[in-house]
Specification:
The chain has 284 residues and is α+β, with helices and mostly antiparallel strands. 52% of the residues lie in helices and 14% in strands. The strands form 2 sheets. Strands 3, 4, 5, 6 and 7 form a 5-stranded antiparallel sheet that branches. Strand 6 and strand 7 form a beta hairpin. The radius of gyration is 33 Å and the shape is elongated.
Length: 284
Protein backbone atom coordinates (compact mmCIF):
# COMPACT_ATOMS: atom_id res chain seq x y z
CA UNK A 1 0.00 0.00 0.00
CA UNK A 2 2.84 2.38 0.84
CA UNK A 3 4.47 1.94 -2.55
CA UNK A 4 1.15 2.33 -4.34
CA UNK A 5 0.87 5.68 -2.57
CA UNK A 6 4.38 6.52 -3.84
CA UNK A 7 3.30 5.72 -7.37
CA UNK A 8 0.21 7.89 -7.05
CA UNK A 9 2.40 10.64 -5.61
CA UNK A 10 4.78 10.29 -8.53
CA UNK A 11 1.98 10.37 -11.04
CA UNK A 12 0.50 13.44 -9.40
CA UNK A 13 3.88 15.15 -9.40
CA UNK A 14 4.15 14.54 -13.13
CA UNK A 15 0.65 15.68 -13.94
CA UNK A 16 0.87 19.47 -13.53
CA UNK A 17 -2.72 19.50 -14.70
CA UNK A 18 -1.71 17.93 -18.05
CA UNK A 19 -0.58 14.45 -17.12
CA UNK A 20 -4.12 13.12 -16.57
CA UNK A 21 -6.70 13.19 -19.28
CA UNK A 22 -10.40 13.24 -18.67
CA UNK A 23 -12.32 11.40 -21.36
CA UNK A 24 -15.05 8.78 -21.44
CA UNK A 25 -12.65 6.15 -20.06
CA UNK A 26 -12.76 6.45 -16.27
CA UNK A 27 -9.41 4.74 -15.75
CA UNK A 28 -6.67 6.92 -14.33
CA UNK A 29 -4.30 7.94 -17.13
CA UNK A 30 -0.59 8.32 -16.43
CA UNK A 31 0.92 9.13 -19.80
CA UNK A 32 -0.01 9.56 -23.45
CA UNK A 33 1.75 8.97 -26.74
CA UNK A 34 -0.44 10.25 -29.56
CA UNK A 35 -3.74 8.36 -29.11
CA UNK A 36 -2.37 5.64 -26.82
CA UNK A 37 -2.54 5.96 -23.04
CA UNK A 38 -0.67 4.37 -20.15
CA UNK A 39 -2.94 3.79 -17.16
CA UNK A 40 -2.31 3.66 -13.44
CA UNK A 41 -3.52 0.05 -13.48
CA UNK A 42 -0.58 -0.78 -15.77
CA UNK A 43 2.02 0.43 -13.28
CA UNK A 44 0.49 -0.05 -9.85
CA UNK A 45 2.18 -3.44 -9.30
CA UNK A 46 5.63 -2.43 -10.51
CA UNK A 47 7.20 -2.17 -7.08
CA UNK A 48 7.06 -4.35 -4.00
CA UNK A 49 6.21 -3.27 -0.47
CA UNK A 50 9.89 -3.41 0.54
CA UNK A 51 11.06 -1.02 -2.16
CA UNK A 52 12.10 2.42 -0.94
CA UNK A 53 10.30 5.58 -2.03
CA UNK A 54 13.31 6.71 -4.10
CA UNK A 55 13.67 3.37 -5.87
CA UNK A 56 9.93 3.19 -6.46
CA UNK A 57 9.92 6.57 -8.18
CA UNK A 58 12.95 5.61 -10.28
CA UNK A 59 11.35 2.32 -11.36
CA UNK A 60 8.14 4.04 -12.39
CA UNK A 61 9.98 6.82 -14.24
CA UNK A 62 12.08 4.30 -16.17
CA UNK A 63 9.03 2.21 -17.01
CA UNK A 64 7.10 5.20 -18.32
CA UNK A 65 10.06 6.32 -20.43
CA UNK A 66 10.55 2.83 -21.89
CA UNK A 67 6.84 2.56 -22.60
CA UNK A 68 6.80 5.94 -24.36
CA UNK A 69 9.88 5.11 -26.46
CA UNK A 70 8.43 1.79 -27.56
CA UNK A 71 5.05 3.32 -28.35
CA UNK A 72 6.67 6.06 -30.43
CA UNK A 73 8.47 3.39 -32.48
CA UNK A 74 5.22 1.46 -32.89
CA UNK A 75 3.41 4.59 -34.07
CA UNK A 76 6.28 5.33 -36.44
CA UNK A 77 6.05 1.82 -37.84
CA UNK A 78 2.31 2.15 -38.35
CA UNK A 79 2.91 5.33 -40.40
CA UNK A 80 5.87 4.07 -42.42
CA UNK A 81 5.35 0.36 -42.96
CA UNK A 82 3.27 -0.69 -45.92
CA UNK A 83 -0.24 -2.01 -45.47
CA UNK A 84 0.86 -5.44 -46.67
CA UNK A 85 3.65 -5.55 -44.04
CA UNK A 86 1.22 -4.51 -41.32
CA UNK A 87 -1.29 -7.11 -42.46
CA UNK A 88 1.43 -9.77 -42.38
CA UNK A 89 2.46 -8.77 -38.86
CA UNK A 90 -1.14 -8.77 -37.67
CA UNK A 91 -1.55 -12.30 -38.98
CA UNK A 92 1.53 -13.36 -37.05
CA UNK A 93 0.24 -11.69 -33.89
CA UNK A 94 -3.16 -13.37 -34.22
CA UNK A 95 -1.56 -16.74 -34.93
CA UNK A 96 0.73 -16.38 -31.91
CA UNK A 97 -2.26 -15.51 -29.73
CA UNK A 98 -4.21 -18.52 -31.03
CA UNK A 99 -1.20 -20.79 -30.48
CA UNK A 100 -0.83 -19.60 -26.87
CA UNK A 101 -4.49 -20.19 -26.05
CA UNK A 102 -4.55 -23.54 -27.84
CA UNK A 103 -1.36 -24.76 -26.16
CA UNK A 104 -2.56 -23.74 -22.70
CA UNK A 105 -5.96 -25.40 -23.17
CA UNK A 106 -4.53 -28.62 -24.58
CA UNK A 107 -1.97 -28.82 -21.76
CA UNK A 108 -4.77 -28.42 -19.21
CA UNK A 109 -6.81 -31.18 -20.86
CA UNK A 110 -3.81 -33.49 -21.12
CA UNK A 111 -2.79 -32.88 -17.52
CA UNK A 112 -6.29 -33.78 -16.37
CA UNK A 113 -6.48 -36.98 -18.42
CA UNK A 114 -2.94 -38.36 -18.84
CA UNK A 115 -1.81 -41.44 -16.98
CA UNK A 116 1.78 -40.80 -15.89
CA UNK A 117 2.34 -44.23 -14.35
CA UNK A 118 4.70 -46.41 -16.36
CA UNK A 119 4.91 -50.01 -15.18
CA UNK A 120 8.15 -51.97 -15.10
CA UNK A 121 6.72 -54.24 -17.78
CA UNK A 122 6.01 -51.30 -20.10
CA UNK A 123 9.54 -49.97 -19.60
CA UNK A 124 11.00 -53.40 -20.27
CA UNK A 125 8.97 -53.86 -23.45
CA UNK A 126 10.06 -50.47 -24.81
CA UNK A 127 13.68 -51.17 -23.85
CA UNK A 128 13.72 -54.55 -25.58
CA UNK A 129 12.13 -53.12 -28.72
CA UNK A 130 14.64 -50.25 -28.90
CA UNK A 131 17.70 -51.70 -27.20
CA UNK A 132 20.05 -50.69 -30.03
CA UNK A 133 19.22 -47.02 -29.34
CA UNK A 134 20.46 -47.08 -25.78
CA UNK A 135 24.22 -47.01 -26.25
CA UNK A 136 26.38 -45.44 -23.58
CA UNK A 137 28.31 -42.29 -24.45
CA UNK A 138 30.46 -42.59 -21.32
CA UNK A 139 31.77 -45.23 -18.92
CA UNK A 140 29.66 -46.45 -15.99
CA UNK A 141 30.62 -48.34 -12.85
CA UNK A 142 29.03 -49.82 -9.78
CA UNK A 143 31.32 -49.17 -6.86
CA UNK A 144 31.64 -48.25 -3.21
CA UNK A 145 34.30 -46.27 -1.39
CA UNK A 146 35.34 -44.84 1.94
CA UNK A 147 37.82 -42.06 2.65
CA UNK A 148 39.38 -42.33 6.09
CA UNK A 149 42.23 -40.85 8.07
CA UNK A 150 45.34 -43.00 7.73
CA UNK A 151 45.60 -43.21 11.51
CA UNK A 152 41.97 -44.05 12.17
CA UNK A 153 41.39 -46.60 14.92
CA UNK A 154 40.86 -50.17 13.66
CA UNK A 155 41.85 -49.34 10.11
CA UNK A 156 42.59 -52.99 9.36
CA UNK A 157 39.14 -54.06 10.57
CA UNK A 158 37.49 -51.33 8.47
CA UNK A 159 39.43 -52.49 5.42
CA UNK A 160 38.48 -56.12 6.08
CA UNK A 161 34.80 -55.31 6.44
CA UNK A 162 34.89 -53.05 3.42
CA UNK A 163 36.34 -55.79 1.23
CA UNK A 164 34.12 -58.59 2.53
CA UNK A 165 31.03 -56.39 2.72
CA UNK A 166 28.41 -58.85 3.83
CA UNK A 167 25.15 -57.69 5.37
CA UNK A 168 26.66 -57.39 8.85
CA UNK A 169 29.74 -55.57 7.52
CA UNK A 170 27.63 -53.03 5.67
CA UNK A 171 25.52 -52.38 8.74
CA UNK A 172 28.57 -51.83 10.90
CA UNK A 173 30.28 -49.55 8.37
CA UNK A 174 27.11 -47.53 8.20
CA UNK A 175 27.09 -47.22 11.98
CA UNK A 176 30.62 -45.79 12.11
CA UNK A 177 30.38 -43.67 8.95
CA UNK A 178 30.55 -40.50 11.04
CA UNK A 179 34.28 -41.27 11.35
CA UNK A 180 34.79 -41.23 7.58
CA UNK A 181 35.85 -38.13 5.69
CA UNK A 182 33.48 -39.16 2.90
CA UNK A 183 31.93 -42.38 1.70
CA UNK A 184 29.39 -44.11 -0.51
CA UNK A 185 28.37 -47.66 0.30
CA UNK A 186 25.56 -48.02 -2.23
CA UNK A 187 27.25 -50.19 -4.83
CA UNK A 188 24.07 -51.39 -6.53
CA UNK A 189 23.53 -48.37 -8.79
CA UNK A 190 25.33 -47.32 -11.96
CA UNK A 191 27.39 -44.14 -11.69
CA UNK A 192 29.19 -42.15 -14.38
CA UNK A 193 32.95 -42.46 -14.05
CA UNK A 194 33.17 -38.72 -14.70
CA UNK A 195 31.13 -38.12 -11.53
CA UNK A 196 33.50 -40.32 -9.54
CA UNK A 197 36.49 -38.40 -10.85
CA UNK A 198 34.86 -35.09 -9.90
CA UNK A 199 34.00 -36.40 -6.43
CA UNK A 200 37.31 -38.11 -5.62
CA UNK A 201 40.22 -35.79 -6.35
CA UNK A 202 42.85 -38.50 -6.00
CA UNK A 203 41.63 -40.15 -9.21
CA UNK A 204 43.90 -38.98 -12.05
CA UNK A 205 44.36 -39.83 -15.75
CA UNK A 206 47.18 -42.09 -14.59
CA UNK A 207 45.05 -44.27 -12.28
CA UNK A 208 41.61 -43.75 -13.86
CA UNK A 209 41.76 -47.13 -15.60
CA UNK A 210 41.79 -48.86 -12.21
CA UNK A 211 38.12 -47.87 -11.98
CA UNK A 212 37.37 -49.69 -15.23
CA UNK A 213 38.42 -53.14 -14.02
CA UNK A 214 35.51 -55.26 -12.84
CA UNK A 215 35.78 -56.74 -9.31
CA UNK A 216 38.86 -54.61 -8.67
CA UNK A 217 39.88 -53.34 -5.23
CA UNK A 218 41.78 -50.05 -5.22
CA UNK A 219 43.58 -48.42 -2.31
CA UNK A 220 45.03 -44.95 -2.83
CA UNK A 221 46.68 -42.61 -0.37
CA UNK A 222 47.20 -38.85 -0.30
CA UNK A 223 47.98 -36.21 2.31
CA UNK A 224 44.36 -36.24 3.47
CA UNK A 225 44.04 -39.95 4.12
CA UNK A 226 43.36 -43.31 2.51
CA UNK A 227 40.75 -44.18 -0.12
CA UNK A 228 39.33 -47.69 -0.24
CA UNK A 229 37.42 -48.42 -3.44
CA UNK A 230 35.73 -51.56 -4.67
CA UNK A 231 34.55 -51.74 -8.30
CA UNK A 232 31.76 -54.30 -8.67
CA UNK A 233 30.80 -53.88 -12.31
CA UNK A 234 31.84 -51.88 -15.36
CA UNK A 235 30.18 -50.78 -18.60
CA UNK A 236 32.22 -48.97 -21.20
CA UNK A 237 31.35 -46.29 -23.71
CA UNK A 238 29.50 -47.89 -26.60
CA UNK A 239 28.07 -50.72 -24.51
CA UNK A 240 24.31 -51.10 -24.26
CA UNK A 241 23.00 -49.11 -21.31
CA UNK A 242 21.29 -51.23 -18.64
CA UNK A 243 17.54 -50.92 -18.25
CA UNK A 244 17.74 -49.60 -14.69
CA UNK A 245 20.01 -46.78 -15.83
CA UNK A 246 17.82 -45.61 -18.73
CA UNK A 247 14.44 -46.35 -17.13
CA UNK A 248 13.74 -42.68 -16.21
CA UNK A 249 14.38 -41.72 -19.83
CA UNK A 250 12.19 -44.54 -21.12
CA UNK A 251 9.39 -43.60 -18.73
CA UNK A 252 9.44 -40.04 -20.04
CA UNK A 253 9.43 -41.27 -23.64
CA UNK A 254 6.41 -43.49 -22.94
CA UNK A 255 4.55 -40.63 -21.25
CA UNK A 256 5.34 -38.28 -24.15
CA UNK A 257 3.99 -40.85 -26.61
CA UNK A 258 0.81 -41.06 -24.57
CA UNK A 259 0.55 -37.26 -24.67
CA UNK A 260 0.86 -37.20 -28.45
CA UNK A 261 -1.77 -39.91 -28.83
CA UNK A 262 -4.06 -38.12 -26.39
CA UNK A 263 -3.65 -34.80 -28.21
CA UNK A 264 -4.53 -36.46 -31.53
CA UNK A 265 -7.63 -37.96 -29.94
CA UNK A 266 -8.60 -34.62 -28.37
CA UNK A 267 -8.26 -32.86 -31.72
CA UNK A 268 -10.42 -35.52 -33.35
CA UNK A 269 -13.04 -35.48 -30.60
CA UNK A 270 -13.38 -31.71 -30.38
CA UNK A 271 -13.92 -31.46 -34.13
CA UNK A 272 -16.45 -34.29 -34.23
CA UNK A 273 -18.35 -32.85 -31.28
CA UNK A 274 -18.43 -29.43 -32.93
CA UNK A 275 -19.87 -30.93 -36.12
CA UNK A 276 -22.43 -32.91 -34.13
CA UNK A 277 -23.50 -29.81 -32.17
CA UNK A 278 -23.52 -27.67 -35.32
CA UNK A 279 -20.70 -25.47 -34.00
CA UNK A 280 -18.56 -26.30 -37.03
CA UNK A 281 -19.76 -26.33 -40.62
CA UNK A 282 -18.02 -26.37 -43.97
CA UNK A 283 -19.94 -24.65 -46.74
CA UNK A 284 -19.86 -26.12 -50.22
Amino acid sequence: MRNKIYIVFLVLSFSSCTFFFKETDDRLKVARVNDTYLYYDDIKDLVSENTSKEDSILLVQNYINRWATQQLFVDGAMLNLSESQQASFNKLVNQYKNDLYTKAYIEALVKRSIDTTVTDEESKMYYQANEEVFKLNEDLIKFRYVHVDENIIDFNKIEQKFKRFNKSDKKELDSISVQFKSYSLNDSIWIKVSQVINKISIITPGNKNELLKKSNFVQLKDSLGVYLMQINDVLLRGDTAPLEYVKPTIDQIVINQRKLELIKQLEKDITQDAIKNKQFEIYN
